[in-house]
Amino acid sequence: MDAHGTGPVSTIADWADGALRVRDDCELVETQLLAADSFLVQHGEALALGLHRTRFAETAREQGFASAGELEAFWEAGVATLPRDGAWFPRFELVRARDALRLRFRLRTAPPLTTSVVVATAEADPRRTPELKGPDIDALSAVRQRAQRRGAQEAILLDGGQVSDGTSTALLWWRGDALFAPPFSLPRVDSVAARTVRGIAAALGVPVDEEAVRPAELDGVVLWAVNALHGIRMVTAWVDGPALVHDAARTEAWRARFAMLARPLPPVSRS
After folding, report:
1. Do residue 99 and residue 122 come from a single domain?
2. Are 97 and 122 within one domain?
3. What is the pLDDT along the chain (271 residues), one digit of tens a residue?
4. Residue 202 belongs to a domain with what CATH number?
5. Closest to 191 in 3D by CA, of 156, 165, 162, 222
6. How would you classify residue 44: left for phi > 0, otherwise alpha for psi between -120 and 50, otherwise beta?
């Protein structure tokens, strides 16, 4: 099976003795996810690969993995295995298994990409380490699934009643010609996609500011949900929430700018 329509691919490889070793699912022991980073690969290109690499390494070190050299070699080996055709959504992981820290790589076919999304307010915030990418993924997935039963695809997390983050996306919104984001003081992962959008705004001279808001205060704005898989998506509706404005032309223009920042993966060493 491959990324050309014959079915999804998902393989798992452990980092051991300086190499990635593919394992069967039945061989896996119970693990605790400590760090994870994913990005979209299309036709041998990825966006902001260096930022993802840095974020994963920083999270892994914070979770107790001390060897920077091992992290670097593991990352390079994972990138080297990525196919240069098709669409993929690999995930680099640090897990705890049998009281030991292990690096693990998942090669996964990218799921279907979308340009818009419906959201709903999360019933609760399950995050225990909101600033780290990885440990809360399963809990956030459960929250998102509950939102899906309400007719949404994504759930919005609140902190003290204020909009903080999405379960799998970062949030940005427009008021006129200014772009806004939740305050950095609110707990959330440093989104590579959101950082990329802010970089585009800086290059275009678009004002960017922080704004602490409750959901009702987003009534009448253009709201974006951004992440490494889908890029920029326009939020078309908020279930039992604020009435949002749609700006398809602006969204499509910025999606194109975002996509243009993708760069070819590093060449695979033949040595």
Report:
1. no
2. no
3. 344 444 566 899 999 999 999 987 655 567 899 999 999 999 999 999 999 999 999 999 999 999 999 999 999 999 999 999 999 999 999 999 988 999 999 999 999 999 999 999 999 999 999 999 999 999 999 999 999 999 999 999 999 999 999 999 999 999 999 999 999 999 899 999 999 999 999 999 999 999 999 999 999 999 999 999 999 999 999 999 999 999 999 999 999 999 999 999 998 776 5
4. 3.20.10.10
5. 165
6. left
- Which of 97, 57, 104 is CA-nearest to residue 78? 104
Domain count, the chain: 2
Three-state SS for 92? strand
- Per the structure, the complete domain to which residue 16 belongs is given by 10-108
The pTM (predicted TM-score) of the whole model is 0.93
- What CATH number is associated with residue 101? 3.30.470.10
